[in-house]
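Chapter review: from sequence to fold.
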Amino acid sequence: MVCFPPMNSCDVLLIGSGGGTKIAQALARLGRRVTVIERERAGGTCLNRGCIPSKMLIHPAGLVQRLRDRRHPAIRTALPAVDFEALVASINAYTDGTSDSLVGHFEQNAAIDYVRGEARFVSDRVVAADGREFTAPVIVVATGARPHVPAIPGLAGTPFMTSTEALRNRILPPRIAVLGGGYIGAELGGAYAGFGSHVTFLLRSTFLKREDPDVVAEFTRAFAPGKTIHEHARIREVAHRDGVFTLTCSSVNGAPFVVEAEALLVATGVVPNSDGLGLENTGIQTNADGFIAVDDRLQTAVPGVFALGDVVGRHLFRHAVNFEAEYWLDAHFIAPAPYPIAYPPMPGAVFTHPEIASVGLTEPAAREQGLDVVVGKASYPSCAMAVARHLDHGLVKLLFARDTGKLLGAHLVGEEASTLIQELVLALTHGLTAADLYRQIYIHPAFPEVVRNAVRHALPQLDPRRASLF
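The token string follows.
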């Protein structure tokens, strides 16, 4: 029988220091006593094994890729030498240093008790960690998610990588196989290709199947050169011998084929970090996939116990976690009375080369809902900046309601898509129409003109009188 010291109590108990970091620091400023329990490095997935290190890898890969593409006919240069080991070491030094500084901030704050250990519920109101027991009137679970590893014969026991290992791997493999075509696989596989690895993608269906089909088609056309892509593939078996992976696969028609590579990246989605929390000792409920069920105030089935971020699974973005954390703080500690969460349109981006960004409905989703939509499209080469940069790819696709002209969805693939989308996030959030978007001045020559051109394509369909304008 385990004997615990006397119970540790505080005002708010946070399990997880990713989304929990923002909450802890704000609550301390509000005069609350906070305990943060974290089993891994402080800062969560985004800082340690997600958004930040991946972009620090993707950006230099893009620089090398642009030189390799030699898009400008008058610029001739040898490819730069990349010290891959030094690059990854510098990325790790930054993320580890930032994580350590978060711990330092926690430890210097008298209102915050930082505990390194694995949290496990003993009951609805009691959590055990680091040989101690903790309780609080308010508990927040923000434990995030981790890479999903499929049950493929032979995979277990091989030195495959998930995104966690891929962002700390200091050896650039001559060949790498990427299992999965979501944003993690596309981003990291694209980065390895940029640095010179030959990348083979094994996709269960297509790339980025949640994106609009026109965007996926344009992305694949621009992204595919120099890579091997197998769509609708099945991995039957994995073997590893003498430093080489051998993947036995089959195509959509059942034809067998084999892929060999020195490295294997498994990027097949995520699973929530809820299974080790001892939820069976509480009234907290999860769905069939293990994501914690919450109401419209982010409260679980146990009053006073809340959950947010990836462990809830509503939106698997860091900016969504930030929104939920800021809502939760305001609704439960600042506003006169708690109020339900209302998500505005949620944008997303894929930081590949080219980038993808989207917000709102895709065309198939709109048609499925029975909406009468008008589609406006424009290619990047239709704007002067794309011509100046010798770009032969890129697309903006906008969906408008035929009856009101309001924007319903925006889907981009091309340079600076993650920045260009923000104007359209604003438009969708505030119910702006195609006419509203048209009645502003777009800087020339700049990439936002592609958005303008897509609006111009839609306007005559909404109002035939405008056909003569364009």
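Two observations follow directly from the output. Residues 84-108 form the longest helix (25 residues). The two ends are 79 Å apart (CA to CA).
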